[in-house]
Write a structure and sequence with these properties.
The protein is an all-alpha fold. It is 72% helix and 0% strand.
Length: 53
């Protein structure tokens, strides 16, 4: 088992669990892929900002 790879996989899985608390991300209200990608980026920013302030 590659522990380094598992560590990064776990990090990515936890990141997606954190952004799924935003309803628009979890239910995918947007019809266009670019709008959905923008919402995902915004959700990641909102998760990331409190960690570095």
């Amino acid at each position: 088992m590659d522990w380094c790879l598992y560590k990064y996989r776990h990090l990515v899985e936890n990141a997606f669990l954190k952004i799924k608390k935003y309803r628009a991300i979890a239910t995918r209200y947007d019809k266009l892929a670019r709008n959905y990608a923008s919402n995902v980026a915004l959700a990641f920013v909102m998760v990331w900002l409190p960690m570095h302030c």
